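Each field is set out as follows.
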Amino acid sequence: MMTIITPKSWAAFVARVILGLIFFAAGFWKVFSLGAIEHARELFVVPYAVSFLPGWLLWVAGTSIPFVELMCGGLMVIGWKRFPAAFGLGGVLVIVTFGHLVADPLYAFNTHVIPRVVLLVLAMAMFQEDGLSLDAWLTRRRDAASAAS
């Protein structure tokens, strides 16, 4: 029987859950308090209306990002479908980085983007070590069922 909780599995769990909570909380607030349409209008359409970015793209990105953050953040918290969730969160971080650079080429990323990127990279680098995820539990269950048959 394999040990599930090791120092590496605990590190992976902590990075993954904190990352997930950050994005889940942001998405939850944007979807249920601010509203996805208002998020798009306030943070995408109005500030970037004078940029080269097309209005339809600003609306699509601004309304979809809150749902991606909510869903992918939740998946990271429970550790299910971690790679698709990490892919979604990475996409959000790329879009946010691009947007900030369009608005201000010297934007300081150290308070917002960099901590999330570090957690995302750490969580992804340690996927194999994360024995406390739902993905790992399902794999152990499937492997035990295969071995029993």
Observations:
- The chain is about 75% helix and 0% strand.
- Residues 7-34 form the longest helix (28 residues).
- The helical segments are 7-34, 36-48, 55-78, 82-103, 113-125, 134-148.
